[in-house]
Design a protein that fits this description.
It is an enzyme of class 4 (lyase). The chain has about 110 residues and is an alpha+beta fold. The protein has a single domain, classed as 2-Layer Sandwich (Gyrase A, domain 2). The chain is built from three helices and four strands, in the order H-E-E-H-E-E-H. A hairpin with a 2-residue loop joins strand 3 and strand 4. Helix 2 packs antiparallel against helix 3. The mean pLDDT is about 90.
């Protein structure tokens, strides 16, 4: 999944819950959440200290800049939480799942 190309989505609507659940099967550590009626994909990553969490946050930021698709990242001592969704679509699209898989790769 991480090797899929990301591109501006042609779909006018976000993915359905059913479609999201199918995509999420490939990302077992990620959760689909609903915040104010908007589906989002989130995962908590743990680290041994703040410096490692911060370095991971930078790697995710670099990934986001390259894709021109930006998550919410919350960083604190020993952890970072990454949440992907397509702001312009008001929910999840295929790119969110691709970038979640890439996030897993930069966490290694």
């Amino acid at each position: 999944m991480a090797d899929h190309e990301t591109s501006p989505s042609q779909a006018a609507e976000p993915m359905t819950l059913e479609a999201c659940m199918k995509e999420a099967e490939a990302l077992p550590e990620w959760q689909i959440i609903d915040r104010d009626g908007i589906m989002k994909l989130t995962r908590r990553f743990t680290f041994s200290d703040f410096a490692q969490a911060l370095a991971f946050t930078q790697r995710v930021g670099d990934l986001a800049e390259q894709a021109n698709h930006h998550p919410k990242i919350t960083t604190q001592w020993g952890e970072a939480r990454v949440t992907w969704w397509s702001h312009d679509k008001g929910g999840l699209c295929h790119d969110d799942f691709t970038l979640a898989a890439r996030t897993d790769e930069v966490a290694k």
